[in-house]
Amino acid sequence: KDSAVKYQMAEKLYTEGKAEEDKSKLRKALRLFEQIIPEFRGKPQGQRVVFLLADTYFLLGDYFLSPFEFERFNQLYPDSDKAEEAKFKEAASYYYRSPRFNLDQTDTDKAIEELQTYLNTYPEGENAELANTMATELRIKLEKKAYEIAKQYHHTEYYKAAIAAFNNFLADYPGSPFREAAYYYRAESAYLLAINSVPYLMETRLNEAKELYSTYNKYYPEGEYSAQTADYSADIDTRLQNF
Amino acid sequence: QGLPLGDSKKYVIGDIKVTGTTTYSEKIVVGFTKLKEGDEIYIPGDKLSKVIKDLWDTGLFSDINFYITNVEGNVADLELEIKEVPVLNQARITGVKKKTETEDLIDENNLKPGVKVTENLITTTKNYIESKYSKEGYFNASANIDVRPFTDTTGVKNRVNMIVNVDKGDRVKIDEIKFTGNEQFPDAKLRRNMKKTKQKNPIRFWKRSKYVENEFENDKLSIIEKYKESGFRDARITSDTLIIKNAEEIALELTIEEGSQYVIGEIDYLGNTVYTDDQLNRVLGLKKGDIYNGVLIDERIQGRDPSKQSVSNIYQNNGYLFSNIDLVETNVYNDTIDFEIRIVEGKEAYFDEIFVTGNDKTKDHVIYRELLTKPGQKYSQEAVVGTIRELGRLGYFDAEQLEPEFIDPNPQTGTLSLEYPVVEAGASQIELQGGYGGGGFIGTLGLSFNNFSVQGLFDKDAYDPIPMGDGQTLSLRAQASTYYQTYSLSFREPWLGGKRPVSFSTSFSYTRQFLFDYINRRADKTRSFDILGVSIGLAKRLQEPDQFMTISNQIGFQRYDLNNYNTGLFTFGDGFSNNLYYQFGISRDNTRINPIFPTGGSLFNITAKFTPPYSLWNGIDYGNLENNPDYQLKDDNGNLVDYNGNRVSPENSVPDTEKVDQKKYNWLEFYKIKFAGTWYTTLANFGPSKDLVLKTSAEYGFLGAYNSERGIPPFERFYVGGDGLGQYSLDGRETIQLRGYENQSIIPLDRPSNARDDGATIYNKYSMELRFPITLKQAASIYMLTFAEAGASYDNFRDYNPFQVNRSAGAGLRIFMPTFGLLGIDFGYGFDPVVGQQGPSGWQTHFIIGQQF
């Protein structure tokens, strides 16, 4: 029958397109899959067609449609042996959608959530390691976003806002690679806030800054910013002698 | 087997047969009855009654009968005769014009295909429609429902079409509105307060005197409101009667009980620790003995409109998000009301985290630097409102969709987080034009990227399709025709270095123009005129005296190069002229909120443009140049000649104007001062995004010379009149819009008629424009306007007369689409004659392209 021919054709185009990374073949396959899918619904081959359609979207880089198709596949055929792959690719679609750190991170949050769901369902899964790497990368992206926003308050000399933002950052992201810099710039914000204060606030603020520098020292005694920390701490001590 | 009824008999059911119209199979219907062969039942009996009732309750059948067809011993064969309720195939509504109205009626009555058409459905639909229209003032509305069987080719039986014939009839008009019991306000005043319910009046033709129940209810409330504003806080409408006079007219009678007028007694504050009673009293602005205006009191206490003063606002603007203010009347005596303002101040609230979401193009740092709310800062309603204004002004986001969200406001810890969800709007504009004009084809390509990213140029992933999101502006423009080409490029970074809003801008432009030979209709490529311009500017937003002020500095250079180019535009055909200038500007812009359609605020600009005063030190006696033999007319052999080419003695020599002017204008020397002020005022509001706005503006410009002998150059001048679109400007000229007149037609009145038209050195202009939006949607903003304006230009201050102006008035339309920028058309009528013309300037049509005002 017509649809059987189309199905064979589509699968051939899909296999070739996938192997040769030929997008035009994949696009043709996609059009055929879309045409035949209503006829195969509820039939034994349906499972395969639904998966291949989703995978074609995925291979074509249409990460806005692929996650929905994979999700549908997993809803229709939860017991399929492709379920794991589908779940992973659904999550991976969001991963690929995640934009650069300084844009809206809704997709990143969704990707982390989906990757986590995958890892919880298939802790020993084929793609578990990759999923872990992806999730870590995305978490670091979120950390970078929060860190850069805090750092911008420091750069634009809104020191109070910088301190508050770094505090939030340090509370929200334990184990982030940006922690050291966050500790340091928090202290530096406090220092710059203190020395630009009116005299009657200066002493308390200098002490607060000193406290934050020593916090940095406590965690990173041999840190990247140790030299500056030593300099600024010494400067604070000199200034404090005036009070 | 149930209970027997009367003289019933017990039977065992034999066969059950189903007859009658049905689309269901016999088995299913029997299934509905829950009876089966072999059951014992009494006939008649309650079991059978229940079966009938159950079947009836399914709503699928309109007639149900059981018959005993055959009895053998105690075995009875039953026949169930049913008539199935027909199923709706399609409902059609006639007599209603609008498609949406038809759809509403179908939805509201659930007349979807597949619905069972019961008597009940028909009756309720009829009643619903009639009462619906009667509420809208169609008292004579009637609905007739015609049910017709429908058979289609598939042969599915028992389907019907419903034809609902609506006859709305005429809307009834209000012949008269009568009031009784009103002593304080005359009938007419109360009628005026009824905004939508009006009695018939032959001279008021634009608002019909129709009766709409909902509007009438609202108008009754506004009468009460009117009383309350004047201290009659017990006023109420004790009865309202609708009298149907005839098929088309009704009368309304309202009885009002006014009660007495109350005044304010003691005002006490309770619970205020942050502000003293005195401070709060000043905000409240009401005192003992004032008329008790409940509406005003509420506004002054609870009002959250950020532009008005209220007790609530001073708390909200100073961190007290969780404050709660209640008004309690404590005592009422002799028409005097004492009240107490009970304040629960709550904990001061601080911002914890500030989020921005939805920015899928614009980078975080571009947005965060504009936010007036920072983490750790005290909550302020003003700052939140201000932030929305700033974000709207960027032009990268849909200003109509900016709405901050409060996250986890916690009265215990005194913290809250804020989220600004933004919706990116197209910030790029493309201009692509081709046209026939000035003797040849003119093509223009203009690209303007308002949210550009230079950094993204070097990142291949950022091309989508062009790098965006750093808030920079890049404009490229190329225009070419057979006889001229012009290229320009400008770039602006609004936050140079990212620390402070210091905007850096630079531009480059190059124009090459060939003399057009009108006889041969082609450009003469040997004779040309080149202009090269570069400029660099820095502008800074100030914090003092307020954050709306900007100062700007610009240094620019322009070189005009003429190569055998004699057109009268310049007195010399070969030579050059350089314009090196410094420009300083101060502007204040607090227009809000939507940059395309500001509804409030004002915009001021003062700019001063200077060139170095070369004549102070270069020692050239410009006044005496014509007496210098070097600048006198000579023939090819170096002999002095007069204008006719005859040799003359040195006493009779004449100056060579080309040489003199070349010397005068080799480096331009001038200063130019301009002022412009624009005010936006919302006159009336007709709902969200429906503000009637008045734009008022005044402009002045003055161009002067340091050295009167060197004189004011023919460059940089003001050309008043017309659409104000700067064509390709050859000589730094400024075209000033004055609608109702032809482009650049307004020349100084006192100028001798034979003088060269090289623009004016002084101009002024006043303009008033009323604007009303049709839509302010993301895809396109459209508004209408009417204007009245006046302007004039002068050659010097002796002639300056701010009242001797050319006046005009007219109307127009503006359409702003993010990709195309602003498009508009204006029809203006000029009331005054232009120089050299009799009678008024008359009607002029102006097309406005890309002007952002």
What would the keywords be for this entry?
heterodimer, A: mainly alpha, 0% strand, rod-shaped, B: 853 residues, 4-stranded mixed β-sheet, 35 strands, elongated
List the topology elements:
The complex is a heterodimer of chains A (243) and B (853).
Chain A (H helix, E strand, L loop, with lengths): L1 H19 L2 H18 L5 H15 L5 H11 L6 H15 L8 H16 L6 H28 L3 H14 L6 H17 L3 H21 L6 H15 L3
Helix pairs in contact in A: 1-2, 1-3, 2-3, 3-4, 4-5, 5-6, 5-7, 6-7, 7-8, 7-9, 8-9, 9-10, 10-11
Chain B lengths: L3 E16 L6 H8 L6 E6 H12 L3 E12 L2 E10 L2 E8 L4 H10 L10 H17 L6 E9 L8 E9 L5 E8 L6 H7 L19 H17 L6 E9 L4 E9 L5 E8 L6 H8 L9 H9 L8 H6 L7 E10 L2 E9 L5 E8 L6 H5 L12 H14 L10 E6 L4 E7 L6 E10 L2 E13 L19 E10 L2 E10 L8 E16 L4 E20 L7 E15 L11 E15 L2 E2 L4 E13 L46 H8 L6 E15 L5 E14 L13 E3 L13 E3 L25 E15 L4 E14 L11 E12 L3 E10 L11 E8 L4
Parallel strand pairs in B: 1-4, 5-7, 8-10, 11-13, 14-16, 29-30
Antiparallel strand pairs in B: 1-2, 3-4, 6-7, 9-10, 12-13, 15-16, 17-18, 18-19, 19-20, 20-21, 21-22, 22-23, 23-24, 24-26, 25-26, 26-27, 27-28, 28-31, 31-32, 32-33, 33-34, 34-35
What can you tell me about this protein's structure?
- The complex is a heterodimer of chains A (243) and B (853).
- Chain A has helices spanning 2-20, 23-40, 46-60, 66-76, 83-97, 106-121, 128-155, 159-172, 179-195, 199-219, 226-240.
- By secondary structure, chain A is mainly α.
- The longest helix of chain A has 28 residues, at 128-155.
- Chain B is mostly beta strands and 853 residues long.
- Chain B is elongated, with a radius of gyration of 41 Å.
- Chain B starts with a strand and ends with a strand.
- The mean pLDDT of chain B is 83.
- Chain A binds chain B through residues 99-100, 102-104, 106, 145, 148-149, 152-153, 155-158, 160-161, 163-165, 168, and chain B through 351-353, 356-365, 368-369, 374-377, 461, 469, 498-500.
